[in-house]
Amino acid sequence: MALRSFRHLPSLLCASSSALARALPLAPGGCPALLPAGHWQCVHQTLLARQLATKKAKGKGQSPAKVNISAALVEDIINLEETSGDMQAVVEALKEDFNRNLSVRTSPGALDHIVVMTKDGKFPLNQLGQISQKSPQLMVVNMASFPESTAAATKAIRESGMNLNPEVDGTIIRVPIPKVTREHREGLAKLAKQSTNKSKEALRKVRSKSVNQVKKFKNKVSEDTIWLLEKQIQQMADSTAAEMDKLLAAKTKELLG
């Protein structure tokens, strides 16, 4: 159904881009009357207008024109809403990582998802031991339910990157909370940067997957359509990456104080 709708895409694009195409010699109606065989002429005019607008915008230091294709018109090629959702999921995962693992103040919740390697596999610490905070300077992990995993849990806490030095007393793991030093703050800021870079790599995978999906239709739709979709997907990725940069800037400011 959506592929058949492409015959309407040129006029929609032309109408939405009339402001950009004023410099071109168009018919009074905004787009020339087109025969079915020549209906992509309007898209070519739109593309030319966008190129001219982009060059003009760059000369004035403005942002280039953006593509905004209706998701309904291309649903048989790619689900743009799904692509947007996948990109936003990467952002939400980064937010969760920042909130859970990168905090100047260490709380019991910060230990919950430390991964412990046991002989039976990997488990989050809160599934193996009971975590509590005895005082502002001390957390305790009671490993009575899984005493055989006490050593592995201690190792996982020590290697968590949270600057913690656990002490073992039978099945009790005491975790003194260190004073917050400048070095510790800077270490957390570096971890935030690393997490953001990993998230951007995940974002690039989402973008590449979407572009590859579009390219599967290169023999079924025009090159202009492929170009427009690739450009819109790139715009979505750029916008998401910019959102990540803002999150990183805010987190870095919070961590460094």
Structure, described:
With 257 residues, this protein is an alpha+beta fold. The strands form 2 sheets. A 4-stranded antiparallel β-sheet has the order 3-4-6-5. A two-stranded antiparallel sheet has the order 1-2. A hairpin with a 2-residue loop joins strand 1 and strand 2. Helix 3 packs parallel to helix 8. It starts with 8 loop residues before the first helix and ends with a helix.
What's the quick description here?
The chain has 257 residues and is α+β, with helices and mostly antiparallel strands.
List keywords for this structure.
single chain, about 260 residues, alpha+beta, two-stranded antiparallel sheet, 8 helices, about 50% helix, about 10% strand, elongated, disordered N terminus
Helix/strand layout:
Elements (H helix, E strand, L loop, with lengths): L8 H8 L24 H19 L20 H22 L6 H4 L3 E4 L2 E4 H4 L1 E6 L2 E5 L7 H9 L8 E3 L2 E5 L5 H34 L7 H34 L1
Helix pairs in contact: 1-2, 3-7, 3-8, 7-8
> What's the total number of strands?
6
Helix content: 40-55%
Indicate the low-confidence ranges by residue numbers.
2-56
Largest sheet: 4 strands, antiparallel
Largest sheet, spatial ordering of strands: 3-4-6-5
* Percent strand: 5-15%
